[in-house]
# Entry
Amino acid sequence: MTWTNETSAPEDIAVDRAWDALNRVLDRRVRVSVQMRVTACVADTLSFVTVVRSLAAGEIGRSDVRDEQMDKWARSDKRTAPTAEWDKHFSFQFAAAVKATYYFIRALQDSLYAALLEATGQQAGTYSSMQQCAKNAKNPIHQLINQALPDYFAWFAELRAIRNEMKTGASTGFGYRGVKGARDVRLILQHVDDANRHVSHGRELSLVDIERCLTQTEALLRWSTDHITAPE
# Structure
């Protein structure tokens, strides 16, 4: 079973194919529950990313309409303000979807670590976490990943930091970059200074960041397949 088709984004297809290759070599090497855990996390991630892309497209479409309205207003006698097209309901659906994607991608890293543990003769627990691997430079799996994918653990630390910020309840704003036809929408995580009662803009997240998550995940999937099938 695959989770993408010919119209899917290239990053999604790459993850799907890498998962399929790993899934084939996991058979009989790990417990069924661990293999199903990886499959569920891949399915959750790839299924939900399509929701994020759709909501992002809706945000961009509404921002294009707003720009057109403002242009018409600027060319008019300016006595009538344009109709607002911002729909907070859909905008905050987009915000929630971006946040949720980080949870799914984070869970996928944990499931892959569990599979790597069992495929190399160790026992994975229910809560085996990639963070256990990331923080222990002496962990044999850490050393192998770091050698093959030198950018992975820096990215994983960033992924975890973003997910942890969201766990505490991160308020958000929205930003738009580019011009009509080449525009993206950014989710802006807001920093709150209680002492000064001041809210400022922090990290910005967009589909580019989601695609980077998928690229790193696809690289780990491919490496895991090669590592598990490599001769002793």
In short: Helices lie at 10-26, 32-75, 88-119, 130-134, 140-148, 152-167, 207-229. The mean pLDDT is 86. The longest strand covers residues 182-193. The two ends are 30 Å apart (CA to CA).
